[in-house]
Design brief:
Blueprint: E1 3-6, H1 11-23, E2 29-31, H2 35-41, E3 47-50, E4 65-69, E5 82-85, H3 91-116, H4 126-139, H5 155-162, H6 164-181
Parallel strand pairs: 1-2, 1-3, 3-4, 4-5
Helix pairs in contact: 1-3, 5-6
Amino acid sequence: MPLLLLADRPEWAERLRACLQGSHGKERLIIAADWDTASAYLETPCLLLATPECQALAERFPWPLILLLDDEPTQMPEGAVDWLVGDQLSAEVLRRCLRYVRERCNLQGTLQRLAEQDPHTGIVNRQGFQALLFDALAEHQEQDLVLGYLDLDNFRHVNDALGHQAGDRLILQVVARLKAQLEVGDMLARLGGD
């Protein structure tokens, strides 16, 4: 994941380049002079490094922000995942910061996926369905939108008679058959036990 630097002072670029060379990392540093230049790079995932003066528009983009500061903050800077202080910056500090940010982002992605995905079937759960439905309704304001609801009658009897493993296999077979019938743009969710 490249590092995108948006700083109002050129010494940040020099410091970061020196640290990256000293860490022997594979990170690529992209330097943007302004937000118009930065916008072209923000379409693909990156880590954004910005000074407070350049931070204002960072909230428009989904990528993690590492704030570049002159002094240690007294509290966590709003909108930033982490921060680097100029006079404390070294190859080791930068390496640890980047590792921390990547691990935190991976963890947040995993938590988001677990919160919105049914662990057994791999399709979205009730919470994920509500988010998808909200997005679909917003996207199809003037167009038709079809919503179907499938309930497996007497599913509880399968679990009672054959056991939960058999019920789980049945759910997986139903999901596989439904997935095979989906067309581009169709979505599938599991709202409850069946």
